[in-house]
Amino acid sequence: MNRERTEQEERRREERRQLEERGIEPYAYAFDTDAHAADLLAAFEDEKHGEEASGELRGSVAGRIRSLRVMGGSSFFDLQDESGRIQIYA
User: Fold this and answer.
1) Tens digit of each residue's pLDDT (9 = 90 or more) over 9-62
2) What is the pLDDT of residue 53?
3) What is the model's pTM?
4) Rounded to an integer, what distance in angstroms lies between the CA atom of residue 48 and that of residue 2?
5) d(C-alpha 79, C-alpha 69), whole Å
6) Contact in structure between 68 and 53 (CB atoms under 8 Å)
7) Rounded distance, CA 39 to CA 87, Å?
C-alpha cells in the first residue's frame, strides 16, 4: 500500500538529506549539559534577596519546559530537571 508523498514530505526529506551531507545529524540523540537547575538557582541566590547579581551566568541545562508565557516581546518559561525548577526570561 504505497501512497505518493506530499510536497511537504518531499521538502522535509530534501532538507534532511542536505543536513546529512553537511555532517549534521538531523535527529540528534545527545545533548551535553554542564549545569543543573539547582546550580543556577544557587548561583543567583543573592539576587533573590534584592542584591545585584555578579554577572551573567551561562550553562547548558537539559529538562522539560513545564509552562510557557508570552507577554508582548518577553517570554517566560519554567524548566524542570532532576534537581529542580527554574524560571527563564527570554
Assistant:
1) 999 999 999 999 999 988 877 888 999 999 888 888 766 666 665 667 778 899
2) 59
3) 0.56
4) 59
5) 12
6) no
7) 13
